[in-house]
């Protein structure tokens, strides 16, 4: 008994001392996939750039053809109002259902990011490639997950119901950190909500499960083209989806034929080869098989195209 608690205390102290960002037990493994070109309209400030460096590999090759590179001072076309998303508050998380028939519950360690980042600043430009994205209304906060939960980025944007001492909140997966298969590492504001303002850095015994995000079905999901994208390099992230995404396909003939993308680390669905046009149809399929087709997706760097509905 005593030894067990001593070990836990040492672990929690270690995590609390781990410094800024998620108290990574081990850093994300380096990946071979290209990160966005360094100069993009989305790299808004040096502060963000510095944060980004910690989450993406420092060396990468950019697959975008030079003629297709966005000019750093090109005006951002990302004006589709990510901030103005409204979600019906009438759908309680409890009614949103779970993703699989037998929802598995996990019990593990809960920790919080070191430092004092505010909710979105903790993870925008992080490993899920969410940029300029705000948590939808109805979602209480967000968490980093470990490589053991990460699933090559496929669990980004997925929602988790987490309970500690009788308090239950719904959080979205937005970033990658160290830890193991049951460990959630939350932003300071999320942590405060879950633990009623506990000032320590970690607690043992959080209980959590995957749930459908409490986003109304009439609230659209988005296709976000990654920085540096174009018809020469299709790299998209699905955002604001009720369920996690299993497949992303692209059509250049208005949906007659589809090409499947592959999920690259940092939550980017990337297509091999060059597309004929600057727009394409995108078909996304959720882990439960629900499909949404988004016509006329603008393939330009950083552009968000809203679907007409959600999974
Ligand atoms: C994401 O997690 C990493 C690893 O813990 C952390 O260093 C970083 O600060 C987090 N946020 C961003 C925006 O990368
Ligand atoms: C994860 O880590 C916690 C705390 O260190 C430990 O109690 C638990 O057994 C681990 N779980 C798994 C699945 O490795």
Automatic annotation (TrEMBL):
Residues 77-89 have a biased composition (Polar residues). It comes from the Eukaryota. Residues 1-18 form the signal peptide. InterPro entries: Expansin_CBD_sf, Expansin_CellWall, RlpA-like_sf. Residues 28-39 have a biased composition (Pro residues). Keywords: Signal. Residues 65-76 have a biased composition (Low complexity). Residues 28-48, 64-89 are annotated as: Disordered. This is Expansin-like EG45 domain-containing protein. It comes from Thyridium curvatum.
């Amino acid at each position: 008994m005593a030894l067990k608690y001593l070990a836990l205390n040492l672990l929690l102290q270690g995590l609390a001392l781990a410094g800024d960002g998620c108290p990574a037990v081990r850093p994300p493994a380096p990946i071979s996939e290209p990160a966005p070109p360094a100069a993009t309209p989305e790299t808004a400030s040096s502060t963000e750039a510095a944060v980004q460096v910690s989450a993406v590999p420092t060396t990468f090759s950019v697959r975008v053809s030079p003629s297709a590179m966005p000019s750093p001072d090109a005006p951002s076309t990302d004006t589709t109002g990510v901030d103005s998303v409204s979600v019906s508050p009438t759908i309680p998380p409890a009614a949103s259902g779970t993703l699989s028939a037998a929802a598995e519950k996990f019990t593990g360690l809960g920790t919080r990011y070191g430092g004092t980042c505010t909710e979105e600043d903790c993870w925008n430009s992080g490993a899920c490639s969410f940029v300029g994205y705000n948590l939808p209304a109805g979602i209480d906060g967000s968490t980093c997950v470990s490589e053991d939960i990460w699933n090559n980025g496929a669990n980004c944007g997925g929602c988790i119901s987490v309970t500690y001492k009788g308090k239950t909140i719904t959080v979205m997966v937005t970033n990658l950190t160290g830890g193991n298969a049951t460990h959630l590492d939350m932003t300071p504001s999320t942590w405060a909500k879950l633990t009623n303002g506990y000032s320590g850095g970690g607690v043992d015994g959080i209980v959590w499960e995957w749930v459908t995000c409490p986003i109304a079905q009439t609230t659209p999901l988005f296709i976000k083209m990654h920085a540096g994208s174009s018809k020469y390099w299709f790299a998209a992230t699905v955002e604001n989806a009720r369920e996690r995404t299993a497949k992303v396909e692209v059509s250049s003939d208005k949906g007659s034929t589809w090409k499947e993308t592959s999920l690259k680390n940092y939550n980017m669905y990337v297509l091999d080869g060059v597309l004929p046009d600057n727009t394409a149809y995108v078909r996304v399929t959720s882990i439960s098989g629900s499909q949404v087709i988004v016509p006329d997706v603008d393939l330009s760097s950083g552009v968000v195209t809203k679907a007409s509905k959600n999974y």
